[in-house]
Every structure is written in C-alpha cells, then in structure tokens.
Write a structure and sequence with these properties.
151 residues; alpha+beta; 2 domains; 3-stranded antiparallel beta sheet; 40% helix
Length: 151
C-alpha cells in the first residue's frame, strides 16, 4: 500500500510517499498528490486515461457479474424514493424541501435508468476491474511522472 506520511500521526513529512507492506517500509520517495486544478489539464488527463486503461485491463480474480451496477442503482433508486416520500419538512425548510422534492421527482430517473440499461446492453462491453482512483489524492506526481495509487 502506498500512503503519505503527512496523513499519519507521526507528524508531517511533507512531500514523501512511502510504500508499506506487512508493516515494513519498502520504499520512500519524494512526490506529491496531484492538485485538483491539474485534473483539468488535457495532457495530464490523457496520461491518467492511459494509466486507468491499464488498470481496467488487469485480470483480477473478483466477481465481474454485470448485475452489480444495476442492483446498486436499483437500491439507490428505492432508497431515494423512500427518503423523498418520508422527508419531514420543518418550519424552517418546508418550502425549500418541497421544491427540491418536486424538482427531483420531475427528473424521471426511472425512465433514464431504463434507457441506460437498454443502451449499455447493446454495447456488449466486457465487465472489467475498476477502481475509484480518479481523485487527486490518489494520483502521485514526481520527477519521473504520474502514478496511480491503488490500495
């Protein structure tokens, strides 16, 4: 696992990234997390896309059942509808809450989700390993380039 010492309680060692495995330090080098504003740079975005493509092509021994996305979205949709149906306005937020609920209900999320299921089924894309690394703190930059941190 790669981690930054500056997040540990040992005090700041700013600019160092450390590679841990079984509580042993295997490597330490000077680096920094990518800055949020750097994510919008087309050249950096291209490098990130190439590195993410490498991650997505890994043959990882995990479940690659194509139902996970839809099961997760169905649960979210059910929870969202239940939350909206049971939202309790107070005197302070009654108008704002009512307006927000009406706005969300007009989005027709069920229809959009149905369209997305049909559209993606036509693509016949393989189910691949994916990791939520596209956040600036999981992208490390040093003199040699850009690295993805995958825990």
């Amino acid at each position: 696992m790669l981690t930054s010492f500056e997040k540990k309680s040992h005090g700041p060692v700013v600019g160092h990234v450390v590679f841990f495995f079984n509580s042993f330090v295997y490597a330490a080098f000077q680096a920094r997390p990518l800055k949020r504003k750097e994510l919008t740079d087309p050249e950096i975005s291209s490098i990130i896309a190439e590195k993410m493509a490498q991650v997505h092509s890994l043959d990882v021994p995990i479940s690659k059942e194509p139902t996970w996305l839809w099961d997760t979205m169905d649960r979210w949709m059910s929870n969202m509808k239940l939350t909206l149906a049971t939202a309790q306005p107070t005197q302070n937020n009654e108008t704002a809450l009512s307006s927000a609920i009406q706005s969300i209900l007009q989005w027709q999320l069920d229809t959009e989700m149905g369209w997305m299921k049909r559209y993606l089924a036509q693509l016949r894309s393989p189910v691949v390993f994916c990791h939520n690394v596209y956040i600036n703190i999981n992208l490390i930059v040093d003199d040699c380039g850009l690295f993805l941190i995958i825990f």
